[in-house]
Design brief:
Layout (H helix, E strand, L loop, with lengths): L2 H28 L2 H23 L7 H7 L1 H14 L4 H21 L4 H26 L9 H20 L10 H29 L1
Helix pairs in contact: 1-2, 1-8, 2-4, 3-5, 4-5, 4-6, 5-6, 6-7, 7-8
């Protein structure tokens, strides 16, 4: 890991902490469950970034790290479902729980199904984070302008998560996302993702 990677990861962590602080401020007023999901997702992102700064990219080989990192998209997508599609939140909560357990069991035990579980559950969570904010922003126009940036963050985390999963399974995605290429773009990708989330979610928080 280069010094630039560490600086980018530090900036990612600081952005995550800022969002946690702002979500906590809104939660203190409204006591809405979705803000707790958002805070959990970005807390995991912050902790993951700190561990990578001190432990290097080699930590990505740990099945425990892969399992914990899955909480980032799962919690953010849970927050979106609870906030904007509450009629489906119970069903999606079960889906997220099954997904987390499937990723945990297959990753820690080294089962071959890991190459299926991670892309499937990461992919669905990523699609929700990508599609729902854009739909609310440009389709129904019920979300504040700029909230669609959350969808861009979802696209970035989806690409990164799926590419990393295929790489760890020994099958580089499209033959392009090799290990070297993924590690080269991962830190900038995480920072761009977090900045997109910060911009989009701040539009929602300021809108009340």
């Amino acid at each position: 890991m280069t010094m630039l990677d560490r600086v980018l990861l530090l900036l990612t962590g600081l952005s995550a902490v800022y969002l946690i602080w702002r979500f906590w401020g809104r939660y203190s007023k409204n006591k809405a469950l979705h803000d707790l999901y958002y805070m959990t997702g970005f807390a995991v992102l912050f902790v993951s970034g700190v561990l990578l700064i001190f432990g290097g990219w080699g930590l990505l080989a740990s099945p425990l790290v892969l399992t914990v990192a899955s909480l980032i998209p799962l919690n953010i997508s849970m927050g979106l479902m609870n906030q904007f599609l509450p009629q489906y939140k119970k069903a999606y909560s079960w889906f997220a729980l099954v997904g987390f357990l499937a990723i945990a069991v297959t990753s820690i035990s080294g089962m071959a199904l890991k190459s299926v579980a991670v892309p499937v559950f990461h992919g669905v969570a990523g699609l929700i984070i990508f599609g729902l904010p854009l739909y609310l922003c440009f389709g129904t126009k019920t979300a504040p302008k700029g909230f669609g940036a959350v969808g861009i963050g979802g696209m970035l985390i989806g690409i990164g998560g799926i590419a990393l999963a295929f790489y760890k399974a020994g099958k580089p995605l499209f033959g392009i996302f090799t290990g070297e290429f993924i590690l080269m773009i991962l830190a900038p990708l995480l920072l761009l993702m977090t900045l997109a989330y910060t911009f989009g979610f701040m539009k929602d928080i300021k809108a009340g």
